[in-house]
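idk why but the lab printer keeps eating my pages so im just putting this in chat instead. protein + calcium ion:
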Amino acid sequence: MIFQWTILLLISPLMMPAMPAGRPPDPGELVITEIMVDPHATKDTYGEYLEVTNVSDDPVQLLGLIVRDHDRDWCPVTRPLLVPAGRAVVFARRWEPSANGGFFPSYLCTGHALHLKNDRDSIVLDWYGVDIDEVTYRAREWPLEPGKAMELDRSCYDSAINDEPSAWARSRTPMPSGDFGTPGK
Ligand SMILES: [Ca+2]
Ligand SMILES: [Ca+2]
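predcted complex ->
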């Protein structure tokens, strides 16, 4: 009996699922830094994407995060997704660069989970009910244009400052599809 318990104690740590690396995000540590609201070269259901940057000094684990709006669009992160300090991840609607405009996403939001309305919408990074970052864009004030992603100015990588339309500009960097954006860069 003692022998059996000894064996069990020795192998049990090997059977436990490993905790994913990185710590949870605190408010303001993830910043929405680029949004493709209205792709022109692809359908919206293929080419919309959202870039999120970790502005903290630590690797952050996004398993458990929900990317949502204030309506019915919900994209929960259901597998480990580590973002190193200073790096970005891209949430997209299609994996294949040939379909999404020409980039490699970090995480896929299928179906209606990530649907960015062209005239106005909100994007919330929700950590178990806590807002890590939120952006609400509207057609008149924000630099929305078909085929051009909105990029947050590098000096404005801040979860409060990115609420301001003046912190954003239309991308001028061509993608393989012919649209403009720098997802993940
Ligand atoms: Ca759209
Ligand atoms: Ca914000």
